[in-house]
Fold each of these.
Amino acid sequence: MPEAGAAGAPLMTVIAVISFLACLALAGFFFVRQAAQQWTSDLSGSITVQIVGDSPSVIDRDIAAAENVLRATSGVEEVRVYSLEQRRKLLEPWLGKGRVSDSLPVPGIIAVEVSPALRKDLSGLQMDLANRAPGARLDDHGVWNDSLSASAQTGQILAFGIFLLIMVAACAVIIYAARAGLAANKEIIDVLHLVGASDEFIAAEVQRRFFVLGLRGALMGLSLAIIVLLLSGWALQGLEPSGYFLPAIRNNSATMVWLLMVPLLICTVAAVSAKQTVMRSLSGRW
Amino acid sequence: MVIAQSHKQRSVLVNFENVGLSYDGVSETLRDVNMVIRDGDFRFLTGPSGAGKTSLMRMIYLAQKPSSGRLTLFGENINQLPRDQLPLMRRRIGVVFQEFRLLEHLTAFENIALPMRVQGVNQNEYAQDVTELLTWVGLGDRVNALPETLSGGEKQRVALARALVSKPDLILADEPTGNVDPIMGERIMRLLVELNRLGTAVIVATHDLTLVRRMKKNILRLKDGRLSLHGPLKDISPATRAEASSRAAGDERSALGA
């Protein structure tokens, strides 16, 4: 098969663009997944005990009682009681600086780190707290976690769906190009048949051509996608220096490995669709 | 006029039994064709332009299925042949065309090697055969030439070498001298005759009656879709010669118009 067929450079450009978009969709998929994982894993070992009450003195009493319960419970690894000063600071964005009256019953907060075993079953601790400190409420961040993983899941499904759609587009483009290539090279294919070439031989030649074309285009798309991802990671890092909300782009070798699979997938898709197309259209002849 | 020959000792390569061909299902291009080609035969296929010479050839090299009747190639009824068997059968037949049909992006060597390559034969197994064939057709110095740099006669000799490289049992040549000058035409025809002397069966479709007369070979004549076998043309009267040359001119025009 001559290299200059129906498609050549334009097809390679299309494949490069498809590969670029596929890489971005896949990177989006992993980004959302890892961000959600990081958020939830940060929270999963920690619970919060809130203490509410009618007056500061009741609250202070329950805080002390709850702290005792927590320190006595096995599996509790760290107990951090927020002082009144710290709690007032937390309220500042809502109530304003220095305006909180001393008589306002500011709820108590105890941040607790627990072992995975205790995390699985908090009912014992919950009961102890209810007995000894009636104003204590145990928050295991379940609501936050649930809504977070639900939206992360939606994001992941969306990203993966887009990735699949892009792959379908790749298939369609390749099939179209393979058909056009067959029509444009009809004379050559007739000669190949004439000298005794089997359909498999012709299909293999076409397949090899599309594999190379697909690989070249896809690698171009991948390079571009990596550049864009690194640049946007770098830009976002500047915006959000703590790196808490945008963790996935940086230093993520697993994502990079998956991105490297995209060109392989694309050129395999190209080769297989081209071969199938050729075999199907040749078998219609005699 | 029609001669009966007995060739019981030689195997039958091609057998047409009441073969008909119709492209549109209504008008018949070929009707009731009966023909036997045996190992070692040489036949000219003649007839006016549009008589179906090319259609007949296309059926033998498996580019066209007969519409009716029975066509047997190398003992196999081709109507019952599965598609994956066609390449094996085509490899036993070498074909040469008026328009050469070389692959323009391949060198002379690569064009000739093509039938071997599509069979998956290793290059070092056929390289010597290809070189010898190039020498035999007088193009030993044009091994790496691309078709666009070759003259018509040179292209046709490359095409002939390509038809021979897989050592076929049968060579078909469809107007092989149509696009080459008369001297080269005669040279190509002599190559075909020499090949036949070495044992390969040859069918040459041509309207060049001058060459046909000179080669003194049996003639298959197609007229109005029907085929008949004749002995060699001995001499032709001036009237026939005039008719032949006007017919040839007509063929030339239709070939150019096509």
Note: Residues 57 and 91 of chain B are 15 Å apart (CA to CA).
Amino acid sequence: MNRTRLLAHCWFAGTLLLGILGMLLPLPQVLEAFKPYWPALVLLYWILADDKRVTLGLAFALGLGIDLLNSVLLGEQALRLTLLAFIALRFRWQLRFFPFWQQALVVLVLLLNDRLVQLLVRISSAHEPLPPLAWWLSPFVGAVLWPFLYSLLNDLRSRLRLQ
Amino acid sequence: MGSKFSSFLFVSSTVGKLRLVFYLVLAVGMMVLDYNYGLLWQVRYRAAVVVEPLYWLADLPARGVHALVLSFVGRNRLNEENQRLKEQLLLANVRINHMRSVAEQNRRLKELLDTSRRLKLRVQLARVISVDLGMYRHRLGLNVGTRQGVKVGQPVIDAHGVIGQITQVLPSISVMLLVTDPESAIPVVVERTGLRGVAYGSRDGGQLVLPNIPRSADIKPGDRLLTSGIGGRFPPGFPVGKVVSVAPLTTGAFLEVQADPSAALRRSRDVLLLHDLAVSMGPSASKTLPVRMTGRRVGGWQ
């Protein structure tokens, strides 16, 4: 009994770590705009898949951890992930019973909103010019990948539980 | 965001909202602190035990692909490359031998002129690591850090010219600002005429720009730009770029010169860090250095 719980914890932490690594992996410059925001997708999966695991505090802590690795300002990703988790937690019960394509749409909206927040942070802190249009592609890629990611992680989780 | 957001704020439990507000204020507070005091790299340095292994992990696939490519390219191709490199080495040696006599002559002439600039270089080889550092589209990670004696401000070159300079250092990883980054600025001199200027990174980060060249100046496409050594950060005489276009600014009195960088910015896997900073000419580096090391940062959109 205790071992399965430990395994579940490891699996949870492992998926988050993989999400972070996915973000750190560089892509060829042509594909760079298509790279989805992996940690957000993994976090969303856990919000929908498990009742009690993800809290606002955890999203904030995860964001801070990511800030250490890959960010312009300390606190940027913490802000983004906290907002994302808040909205997703609020609609968790509705989202759970949506068919995949509707879930994907919601994920798209969440990720677009996240990009908007990032844009605000970047423009107010670094005085950057507006990003190229391709920069907005990433949320769409994330939404397309969502059904596959969700079923994959769900499948793996149920298999691990069976052991 | 505001209107969408306020609609959630008034329908749900107060505890959740309070928590959200607490975390948001915390995050914004951190950003403000970081913006003003540049905390991020200090924190990163402290947390290097955790941060660096993750960077290494993220770099693994790229290294793996490189190793795979190496093991699968045919023997023929390696032989060919070997042959080509041997020829290049021979040619380079011949050039060096020729240069040596010229350098000797140059040294004697300089002694006559009573200047004491030396052309001695201490270099350190470093490898570019493939990690997405978030904002750093015009920045590269290198596999050396304070443990290897790397310091902020060291120039980085490759076989073709100046690539950039070190801006952040962790115990065994450092980050380099490419010459084409909008924040970068290098004092240069036109090889043909001796005209001086400062080469900035262009706004989109692909080229070099010299904004304030007088209209009467003698400069044309094809001119080579070398480091001038002014400011003392970059030693003089390294290729920086090649002028591709010269156009008058709309304001009238000045020309805007665009140049392509000499170094293979995106293709270099191995680079050299210069150790002995050049003896400075003119005012000291700390006052005239055009690159800001902290404070406002301009990033790329990943």
Note: The helical segments of chain B are 2-9, 14-37, 39-46, 48-72, 75-113, 285-288.
